[in-house]
Design brief:
The longest helix is centred in the middle third of the chain and has 14 residues. The two termini are 15 Å apart. The protein is 26% helix and 38% strand. β5 and β6 form a beta hairpin.
Length: 133
């Protein structure tokens, strides 16, 4: 069994802290000890775990990805105008797994769980699947 929550992004490229939404989903799933998979089934978005204490880290990640994979390049064959978004999603990945202990994600002091948007703004869905020990 899994829980799904909706997310509205505001920018073409952004990182949205979804840690609290994941915690709420785990509560609804009556999670205790095990593993959670956080997954998005979008080809232009992703899931990652990184620092959530200093927003400049999120800015730096987005800026680096934009420089690494710039939009609207002549070498892109996918002509919908979002080829860079698909590449960025593949770099970040569409899921993360995290250990769950006493119903809560085992995260480092400064870590958070993020949805990464590369083709927004959009309405997105994130799925949380819990598997017990």
């Amino acid at each position: 069994m899994y829980k799904t929550f909706n997310l509205n992004t505001k920018s073409r490229n952004e990182m949205v802290d979804i840690t609290s939404e994941v915690k709420n989903a785990l509560k609804e799933l009556n999670a205790d000890n095990g593993i959670a998979t956080i997954y998005c089934r979008h080809t232009t978005g992703g899931i990652t775990i990184n620092e959530n204490a200093d927003p400049s880290v999120q800015h730096d990640i987005i800026e680096f990805l934009n420089k690494l994979v710039p939009a609207n390049q002549s070498y892109f064959k996918h002509m919908e105008g979002n080829a860079d978004s698909h590449v960025k999603s593949s770099i970040i990945g569409t899921s993360e797994q995290v250990i769950i202990e006493d119903g809560k994600p085992v995260l480092g002091r400064w870590q958070g769980i993020f949805f990464t948007e590369f083709d927004g703004p959009r309405n997105r869905k994130v799925h949380v699947k819990f598997s017990s020990d």
